[in-house]
Amino acid sequence: MSNPPAPQHCPTPRELDDLELLVGGALAPVTRFDEPGSPVTLSLPPDVAAAASAAGAVELVDPEGLPLARVTVPGGAVEPLAHPQFGPFRRHYLTPAQVRERYAGRTVVPVVDALTTAQVESLRGRGPLVLLALVGAGTPELSPVALLRATLTAADLLEDAAVVAVPLASHGDAGVDHELGLQVVANYAGPDPVVGLPEAGPDDTLPAPVAEIVERDQPGPQEQGLVLFFTGLSGSGKSTLARALMDRLLEQGTRTVTSLDGDVVRRNLSAGLSFSKADRETNIRRIGWVAAEISRHSGVAVCSPIAPFDETRQQVRAMVDEAGGAFFLVHVATPLEECERRDRKGLYAKARRGEIPEFTGISSPYEAPQDADVVVDTTGRTIDEALADVTDALAEAGYLDLRTEPTPVVEPTPAVEPGGAPGADRVETPAPEPERPLHVLFVCTANICRSPFMELMARRLAGPDANVTFASAGTHGFREHPMDEVMAGTLASRDVTDPGFRSRPLTPRLLDEADLVLTAEAAHRTFILDDHPGAFRKVFTLGQFAHALEQVEGDLSGRELLAVLGERRGAADHALDVADPYRRGAEAAETAAVGIEGLLRTVVPALTGTREAAR
């Protein structure tokens, strides 16, 4: 019975580099993977290892799927199938035999970093040279391409220097890597002399054209590509914080920004994947790959998956590191109990009933990061408070400064009398600035029925001189839709019209800017507080707020009134809700209009300080 076909496998960058050196003879006397005592090893995933064992071999392919070699399993013997054909400066990747054929008699100089001016000068007068750029994964500080460009540029400054690229990878042990490096360089040099470069001193400078290459390859933290990776349980607030951070970045306008939110990615990049552990990890790796490519081109990627497993987060970090970006890990460490309390989708309840298998935090573990750059608990905090933890950490790390500056306090200045000098007998201060208007935000579901009625009717009742502004939004709001015709008709019968009204969805910024949020139903209030628990003192249902006013003595108004009600608010009783009239006919719309108008005739005068006049 014949063996099954050998499975294909794309090795790690380190293993691909080792493969190229094995095939070219640069690792001699090592000629295969997994020789006793050798750091040159090949690791296969369990499923590939099982298939390879059955077939007696595995076929190694490059990232584009080109078969490079067949490796026996067990044994590790390598049969070349093709040579790598693509990649920058591929013409400079030579085998030891090719180097000895082309450059026999030259002095060989191993290079692992950009040559300084002093190092270039030290090579003058040594005759023809071969600069052996060791560009394998993890070996140079510069990217492989940058090291080659820098070495080629330095070679142009010398009388006669050829450049050869050697993919000598790091194996994670400095002593082992040093011994392996000596072996590889000796194989390239053969009988020719090898000269080491003098150690670069702290005051050494780079030749100007080399310095430009290094600067482009290693930008400062504020110019470097950046992956902001938020991880945490479902309901922890990670997506909310990520969106708020996106807003800050876009407002600042100095970086290109891409959002890779978990749910959005699943609908687009990872459609078809299940919620099994394997598919969830595939989803995270896809996010990581895209984010790394964004960072490669100096962009900022904001990611907010659950990402419960440390191994996968480390894989993403490695992708970003390989791309030359910075990886900034934010652990949104809101406790499970709080996440369950916020569970407006009922996912945790379903998971506890066994209806959702492998649900993170319930039937599947969440491995809390030990390497987070910042840890944030959103329990009982506003978005801005929690976001400040992130923006402070980003600023301290030198990547971004998105901190909002406090409004400066302006000291009163003396009035100046004619003649340009302060008056001798009096010092005047400018009149105090008028109090900032009170911002009231009305919220319903789609922002096309109840909340626009509240906004427009409240504006009519308050009058043009009130120091109160009114706006509206929807928890699941349409964008740029006109008001529902039937509900608009109830306003027209009250001589209130605004044909220019257009709907908009509720956003964290609208919530932050509002001094008071009044919702049509208790469900809307719960929806808001699930993601924004710190706003609980300013979010009421319209009926709840009107009922609470009845318990307030005196003529409090404006912010003073809100401060009192924020501490003494009543319960959000569903009986006080304004029922949704959408698509339920003119009678339902008029019933809602009558209810809203009655409540507003209590609420608006209290806010504007005109209750006596309203009576």
Would you kindly provide a written description of the structure presented here, covering whatever features stand out?
This protein is of the alpha/beta class. The termini are far apart. The chain has helices at residues 13-24, 46-55, 96-103, 117-123, 144-156, 174-189, 208-217, 238-252, 262-268, 277-296, 310-323, 336-341, 347-352, 383-397, 450-462, 485-492, 508-513, 522-531, 542-549, 558-568, 585-608, 611-614, and strands spanning 8-9, 57-61, 67-72, 78-80, 107-111, 129-134, 161-166, 226-231, 257-261, 300-304, 326-332, 374-376, 438-444, 468-474, 516-519, 539-541. The protein is elongated and about 100 Å long. The strands form four sheets. Strands 9-10-8-11-12 form a five-stranded parallel β-sheet, sandwiched between helices. It has a four-stranded mixed β-sheet with strand order 1-2-3-4. 40% of the residues lie in helices and 13% in strands. The protein contains 22 helices and 16 strands. Helix 10 (277-296) runs parallel beside helix 11 (310-323) and helix 19 (542-549) packs across helix 21. The model is unreliable at 406-431 (pLDDT under 50).
